[in-house]
Amino acid sequence: TAYGLPQKWDRFSWQDVSRVEAKTKGSTQFADSLVTCTWATRHNIPVLTEALNAATGWDLSFDEALKVGRRAINIMRLFNIKAGHTPDMDKPMPRYGSTPVDGPVKGISVEPHWEDMVSNYYHLMGWDRKTGSPLPETLSELGLEHLLKD
């Protein structure tokens, strides 16, 4: 795939879920920055990037488009941390973490794997595994080093 992910992945594997979430993070924010309809575009970043390039004459790549979104994600993360957000708040609602009693996912819960999944996600995002704060090198890679002093 464009994100460097396998075509098929295990939606019940905490490793796969955290990897897919981290790899695709930023696509929604990029699409939203273009003020496009989610339902019409399905956040098809390659197509949106092509359309943006056609409309503006730019030569933005897929990776650069994701970087735009990842910049937004990291700025939001820093803002939320400054406003008091802690890793303890990165937990699912009880309904999401509960174990279904019937249906195709009967007996499967994310709760036992939540801490590992979040830790792996933080690592893949370039965030401190304990605090959830973007690491200095992550901010530098995104051109956000000016936010380090805050």
UniProtKB/TrEMBL annotation:
Residues 4-144 form the Aldehyde ferredoxin oxidoreductase C-terminal domain. Transmembrane segments: none annotated. Signal peptide: none annotated. InterPro entries: Ald_Fedxn_OxRdtase_dom3 (IPR013985), OxRdtase_Ald_Fedxn_C (IPR001203), Tungsten_al_ferr_oxy-like_C (IPR036021), W-dependent_AOR (IPR051919). Gene3D superfamilies: Aldehyde Ferredoxin Oxidoreductase Protein, subunit A, domain 3. GO terms for molecular function: electron transfer activity; iron-sulfur cluster binding; oxidoreductase activity, acting on the aldehyde or oxo group of donors, iron-sulfur protein as acceptor. PANTHER family: ALDEHYDE FERREDOXIN OXIDOREDUCTASE, TUNGSTEN-CONTAINING ALDEHYDE FERREDOXIN OXIDOREDUCTASE. This is Aldehyde ferredoxin oxidoreductase C-terminal domain-containing protein. It comes from marine sediment metagenome.
